Protein: LemA family protein
Amino acid sequence: MLTSLIVLIVIVLILALMYNSLIAKKNQVENIFASVDTVLKKRYDLIPNLVASVSKYMEHEKSLLEKVTKLRAEANKPNLSDKDKIALDAKVTSALGSIMVAVENYPELKANENVMHLQHTLHEVEEQISASRRAYNQAVTDYNNAIEMVPTNFMASLMNYKRKEVFEIPENERKNVDIKKLFN
Structure:
């Protein structure tokens, strides 16, 4: 009888530890995603200033500026899923990169103090986003491992936990840079 009671206590203790571990990993993912979201919001707040500063110089890139403005508006919609936020982040990153490349074609714009300040601030925010993405991806990897590995996968299945997505590099940014094109 005593042995059965001890075995039961050990099993309950193991189940409680697995449950708490899964809850802790899920909360860690949510906490770090909130940090990513905060930095993304900071970047989205910079976009109107950037667009306003460069729009009078960049008449030929009007469609690019409109695209960035539209993406920012989409990102500020309430109730976006984490998956949608990750997808929008990739699009905004690409569009902002295009603007920064286009700025290089306008010497007056490159020398503008406001644009230089915005570029510097945007660069800092991009570095913060990068660090936040790395932390988020590590937390998601830990979480995904926990919900897929034995024995926690059984409890995760009972708790209806699903895999979470990580931030990934857009396909167009995976290509090697053609140095010859840069000098032509």
